[in-house]
Design a protein that fits this description.
heterodimer; A: mainly alpha; two-stranded antiparallel sheet; 8 helices; B: alpha+beta; Growth Hormone, Chain: A; 2 domains; 3-stranded antiparallel β-sheet; 7 strands; 10% strand; globular
């Protein structure tokens, strides 16, 4: 996938998230991209590490800056909250240029936006870190251990919240597997 | 930079500047002295991995390595370990490594919140002293005033603050509200330095000629990552080699060396502009590819950079005690667009002909290509 196709997918993800009433700040886009790449297998090739509010990619952050420089996206302010990412003036141009790429991954993008769109940063942090833990442990990790490892990494997440995140992750993974086979 | 880092450290760790939400991450007073020294040593050494001419030809390191990887190797070397061991108390080299290069380079290493704050003091995009230092240094040496800003005032207002996001814990560096104008001045200084100095087309083409030279002069076209070789290779060795090659017509790297020494650099054929971007976001690539097809790739160079000078989102401690996003506190921080360039350069001898060709064909060349059915 080239850089322009990558931009087209990120742009589509931002549009889908906004349609699902996401605040769509950088953190929302970071976590959604993480799920899109790692769970749904969209080959964006970003390197994620455990950093700001869970899995985070410095390369993705740079790419979002480059997309701003190209007016593909812009920042929209709603003080006192942080900025949202919204489509810029050249959005339509790139969508018209990469219809096949967007069509190919439409189902995956829509799924991620549907599952994450309405979540605040705190829930995204818990869910994405739970997924990060699962990726770095064995596939059959027991629920209690999963909760414990999540809380080791993020001690401020309460046991209830961690348990909810782990359960929700299982359901999201199951649903994604069904989607991928249809 | 060591001095800026030390000053920064003193401001953010003094008790009166800490809020209850972040006080826990500060080490005990008896350990603070150790960490201050770690920070200052990391500041002193963080760029020792730099190659000749700094970033100019960094992509000639093998295996996607960066100068920070050489910094890490040097910090861990036996020779430097002796220095860390001789200090009182001895410094743990892994602490130095983490603080000097940060999580962006050490992707598989776990950082505590405190270590993350310390490396942010040095390497952070938003308020890191490395950025402050290079702006002040480069503006001084380039003889331009627009890289200056009130770093004394800015550093006086830096704080460790909780995240502005609700129900998450991610202490980070921010500023108190009174520092917002100094932070704006820092961003404007960076904007002007990027647009008028770092990304100036003539400066950029000399980087390209330098890389062209090094590819032909270095063994296998790459820098060595052997530490002894790295330490022996300075600007001086490269300058001497360029000078020799420039006057030796039989030297394989004669052409790029001559262009540097005799100022016969490639000229700008095309640069990004709003009218063409409306038609094709990647118009420069289209022009470059068409020019290469028409005249031959050896006559052209393409140079794009779109990742400089953005305003990172960091917390601001408002006068009423709330923690807000910097981008919601300042229209200047929020609305300054990232600096971006996208140039196609042409061989000077071909410049006139290529410009004429581009003038005739530009509209056709920049039409976007729609991807075909797979």
């Amino acid at each position: 996938m080239n850089e322009q196709q990558q931009s087209a997918i990120l742009l589509s993800l931002i549009e889908h998230l906004r349609n699902r009433r996401s605040w769509c700040g950088e953190t929302h886009v970071q976590k959604a991209t993480y799920f899109l790449q790692e769970l749904m297998g969209v080959p964006l090739n970003f390197d994620f590490i455990l950093y700001k509010y869970g899995p985070y990619s410095f390369e993705l952050s740079d790419e979002l800056v480059a997309m701003r420089a190209d007016s593909l996206i812009r920042l929209s302010q709603s003080p006192p909250y942080g900025p949202s990412l919204v489509p810029g003036i050249y959005t339509e141009q790139i969508k018209k240029q990469f219809p096949q790429t967007l069509k190919k991954f439409e189902k995956q993008i829509d799924f991620v936006a549907r599952k994450l769109g309405e979540k605040p940063v705190s829930e995204l942090e818990a869910l994405s870190t739970a997924f990060y833990v699962k990726q770095h442990e064995n596939a059959d990790i027991q629920q209690d251990r999963h909760v414990q490892l999540l809380r080791n990494l993020k001690p401020h997440i309460t046991p209830d919240t961690a348990r909810r995140a782990v359960n929700e992750l299982r359901s999201v993974i199951n649903e994604s597997e069904r989607l991928q086979t249809t | 930079m060591m001095e800026l880092a030390g000053r920064f450290f003193d401001v953010v760790t003094v008790d009166r500047n800490l809020t209850d939400k972040v006080r826990d991450i500060i080490p005990n007073p008896e350990d603070l002295h150790y960490w201050r020294r770690v920070l200052r040593m990391a500041a002193l050494c963080h760029d020792i991995g730099h190659l000749p001419f700094s970033h100019g030809a960094e992509d000639l390191l093998p295996d996607n390595r960066h100068h920070e990887h050489l910094t890490v190797d040097l910090l861990r070397s036996d020779e430097m370990q002796e220095i860390w061991d001789s200090m009182i108390p001895p410094l743990n080299v892994e602490h130095l490594v983490k603080v000097a290069v940060g999580p962006k380079v050490l992707k598989d290493v776990e950082f505590t919140a405190w270590e993350r704050i310390l490396t942010d003091i040095l390497t952070g995009d938003a308020l890191g002293v490395d950025r402050m230092d290079y702006l002040l240094r480069d503006s001084l040496h380039a003889g331009v005033a627009y890289g200056k800003f009130d770093h004394y005032r800015l550093i006086e207002t830096v704080r460790i603050l909780p995240s502005p996001e609700e129900n998450v814990e991610f202490p980070m560096l921010g500023i108190e509200e009174g520092g917002i104008h100094a932070a704006e001045a820092l961003l404007l200084a960076r904007y002007f330095m990027f647009t008028q100095l770092y990304l100036h087309p003539i400066r950029r083409i000399y980087d390209i000629h330098l890389k062209d030279f090094l590819k032909l002069w270095l063994q296998d076209g790459k820098f060595s990552i052997n530490l002894e070789d790295h330490l022996r290779m300075t600007d001086n060795e490269v300058l001497v080699a360029i000078q020799k090659a420039a006057y030796d017509t039989g030297h394989p790297a004669h052409d790029p060396a001559r262009r540097i020494v005799k100022r016969e650099h490639f000229k700008v054929l095309y640069g990004r502009n709003p009218d063409d971007l409306l038609i094709n976001r990647d118009a420069s690539s289209a022009v470059y590819e068409a020019a290469c097809t028409q005249f031959g790739p050896e006559h052209f160079r393409h140079d794009a950079y779109k990742k400089g000078n953005t305003a990172p989102d960091y917390p601001v401690l408002a006068d009423d005690g709330r923690v807000l996003s910097s981008l919601s506190c300042s229209r200047i921080l929020a609305e300054l667009e990232p600096a971006a360039i996208d140039y196609v350069f042409v061989l000077p001898e071909l410049s006139k002909e290529a410009h004429k060709w581009l003038k005739t064909n530009r509209e056709t060349i920049i039409q976007p290509k729609v991807e075909a059915d797979s």
